[in-house]
Design a protein that fits this description.
NAD
């Protein structure tokens, strides 16, 4: 293929070298002539393992050319990869100056081109940038339409400095956010040979996914470091602890706990977080990330309360009360807390939970209920239909296709639904009920 690459920093330079190595004709574009001169001389503009040898080889292959002319690059290629920088501005926002200027230049070049062209943004961009900001600019300057005359998409990169070539050849996956099949097909032809999954998604999801990955990496590093600080104060080997944590691939290193839903609760997580942060205080340690988890969790609960109060409805039906589906444990259940707050606001509650039976609650679980919801017996109903029939608003706190189907079959068109879990048949459920799912 004929490919133009805009921006010859780490991502752009490595992509140029690897794509030309794989037999593609590549045009490198940058505003810094010094970078272009280095590449023409067979030298690398970035310090990266393996790049010296690779750039020497591809520079003499006849497949690499460089220019400062965006129009020439677009007219001479079929796919453009946009890899310009998007650094932080002084206020923390994203400085999109370079990509905005480039969008106008690409649009002007597309105006002169009759063949379909695929523009692939690889620069990290705030979600919505491609569709809401860059597309109008390109359409305005080209006089053409995305999805008809050219195709915009977003493909996040996962190249780590220091191992970029290895990461290029063996990525964790290839993500392509595209609104049209043609763009996805062209990128699959370009990158489909890599030994990983090729995943297609929406442009916005692909943009957000890049931020999510980097934030998660920062979170993991901070978690390990805060754990190490506490371990050091307690005389525990932090490396031994974290190595043991990573041995668990069923829960710790897995998809478990990484699905959006309601606030967490139960008899373990809240109390152990409190104990950890208190222990840190006794050793004069600050663990801001761990200390911020419970307040963040509380905000999730506050959002649910605000949404319910904003409806102005008084009769609220709870489908679920325990801290998670499949248990009768009500200790520190966020649904119990939400119910307490609503009762305090004068709301009339009815509750259905197939696992919660007052007569069988024992020990700490029973004590918790008696303290926090002493009148729960009057609110608990034995049948789901009774709760649905008497409610103006339904709060879904149970997960599972079966319960969702039952509620969807019983609910009325005039009822509001606040879905606090990710229901497997959520789209079907929302089609049948006026939803406030979030």
């Amino acid at each position: 293929m004929k490919i133009s690459i805009f921006g010859l920093g780490y991502v752009g330079a490595v992509s140029l070298a690897c794509l030309s190595r794989d037999g593609h004709e590549v045009i490198g574009v940058d505003i810094e002539q010094a970078k272009l001169d280095l590449i023409k001389a067979g030298k690398t503009p970035v310090v990266e393992e393996g790049m010296v040898e690779l750039m020497e080889r591809v520079a003499t292959s006849g497949l690499v050319s460089v220019t400062t002319d965006a129009k020439q690059a677009v007219l001479g290629s079929e796919i453009s990869l946009i890899c310009v920088g998007t650094p932080s501005a002084a206020n923390g926002s994203q400085d999109q100056g370079a990509v905005l200027r480039l969008a106008a230049e690409i649009g002007a070049a597309l105006k002169l081109k009759s063949e379909p062209h695929v523009v692939v943004f690889r620069s990290t961009l705030v979600p919505g940038t491609v569709e809401d900001v860059l597309r109008p600019i390109i359409e305005q300057h080209s006089g053409k339409q995305d999805g008809k005359d050219f195709y915009l998409c977003f493909q996040p990169e996962f190249l780590r400095e220091g191992s970029s070539i290895r990461d290029y050849d063996k990525p964790p996956f290839t993500i392509v956010g595209a609104n049209h099949a043609y763009a996805a097909e062209r990128l699959q032809a370009l990158f489909g040979h890599l030994p990983c999954k090729f995943l297609k998604t929406s442009v916005r999801a692909a943009e957000m996914m890049k931020y999510c990955c980097n934030n998660f990496h920062a979170l993991k590093i901070t978690f390990a470091n805060e754990t190490a600080r506490l371990c050091g104060a307690l005389g525990v080997d932090a490396f031994e602890v974290m190595d043991l944590v990573c041995q668990d691939t069923q829960l710790n290193i897995s998809k478990a706990y990484l699905k959006p839903g309601f606030a967490f609760g139960g008899s373990c997580l809240p109390k152990d977080l409190r104990a950890t942060t208190y222990l840190a205080k006794t050793h004069d340690l600050e663990l801001p990330m761990l200390a911020g988890i419970l307040p963040s969790n509380r905000q999730h609960l506050d959002m649910a309360l605000d949404k319910l109060l904003a409806l102005g409805k008084r009769k609220i039906g709870f489908v679920g009360l325990s801290f998670k589906t499949g248990t009768d444990d009500l200790r520190e259940s966020p649904l119990v807390t939400l119910a307490e707050q609503l009762i305090g606001k004068g709301m009339q509650l009815s509750i259905y939970d197939p696992e919660v039976h007052l007569a069988s609650l024992l020990g700490a679980n029973r004590s918790f209920v008696q303290k926090h919801l002493p009148h729960i017996g009057e609110m608990l109903k034995g049948e789901l239909a009774e709760v649905v029939a008497g409610a103006e608003v339904l709060v879904m706190g149970l997960a599972g296709a079966d319960i969702a189907a039952q509620v969807a079959a019983l609910a009325r068109p005039d009822q509001h639904v606040l879905d606090l879990v990710m229901l497997p048949n959520k789209s079907e459920f929302k089609a049948q009920v006026q939803g406030l799912c979030w």
